[in-house]
Write a structure and sequence with these properties.
Layout lengths: L1 H32 L3 H14 L7 H10 L3 H14 L3 H17 L3 H14 L4 H101 L16
Helix pairs in contact: 1-2, 2-3, 3-4, 4-5, 5-6, 6-7
């Protein structure tokens, strides 16, 4: 009797628990139809936690996360889904959706890897092949853009370095010119001083020579007068003028 009561309560509990995850699933699907994707994702998560282990809601849950723009969460859900799937077709779909989630996050390298895995499981999927080519194109564009930005940054850095060097050279060159000009002025002043001193020493010498020359001429004229060779033929009896 007691065992029957236990079984009865277990059945009631299991039934209510089963009904609970089904109710969450119903709310999630209704919200998805109304495009209420964040709400749908929340209830899909709740339904998956309460559902039996053989119930897999990963595809619906991943799609609602993707629509809610929760791309990183969607990627993880699809990654787990791909690992748990048995048949190649289901794996290909999970990898395809994982690639789409990575594309939205601009993880182009990761998207390329996911699309390649999808094509390994389903080589005939043309949509996956197209998405793969698009991921490769965007990756190249991103690499080119980054390369151009790095080149522009390097050019700007080199230009700034050249401007600083030119400015330093101009500053040092201006000081050099000022120093050279000062030295030139000092040298010129020194030359003027030397030239002035030289002229002062030469002018007195010429004056002295002229004075001596005049004195010698005067002395010669006096001697001639004393010797009777002066003008008028007069003679003197004494060597003195008085």
């Amino acid at each position: 009797m007691r065992q029957l009561a236990v079984i009865f309560f277990l059945l009631i509990g299991f039934g209510s628990y089963s009904q609970e995850w089904r109710d969450s699933l119903k709310v999630a699907r209704d919200a998805y139809k109304k495009q209420e994707y964040p709400k749908a994702f929340k209830y899909y998560q709740s339904a998956q936690k309460k559902a039996p282990s053989d119930i897999d809601l990963s595809d619906e849950m991943g799609q609602s996360a993707y629509k809610a723009r929760e791309f990183e969460k969607a990627e993880k859900i699809y990654q787990q889904s791909a690992a748990s799937k048995k048949d190649a077709s289901s794996k290909a779909k999970s990898y395809h959706n994982m690639g789409n989630s990575r594309m939205q996050s601009k993880d182009y390298n990761g998207a390329i890897d996911a699309y390649k895995e999808a094509l390994r499981n389903n080589p005939k999927d043309e949509q996956t092949r197209y998405n793969l080519s698009e991921a490769i194109r965007r990756l190249k564009d991103e690499q080119k853009k980054n390369s151009n930005q790095n080149e522009d940054n390097q050019n700007n850095q080199n230009q700034n370095q050249n401007q600083n060097q030119n400015q330093n050279q101009n500053n040092s060159g201006g000081q050099g010119k000022q120093n050279n000009q000062s030295q030139s002025q000092n040298q010129q002043g020194g030359n003027q001083e030397k030239s002035g001193n030289g002229n002062q020493s030469k002018l007195p010498n010429k004056t002295v020579e002229r004075m001596l020359d005049n004195l010698m001429k005067a002395e010669a004229a006096t001697k001639r007068k004393m010797n009777g060779n002066g003008t008028g033929g007069s003679t003197t009896t004494s060597g003195k003028d008085w």
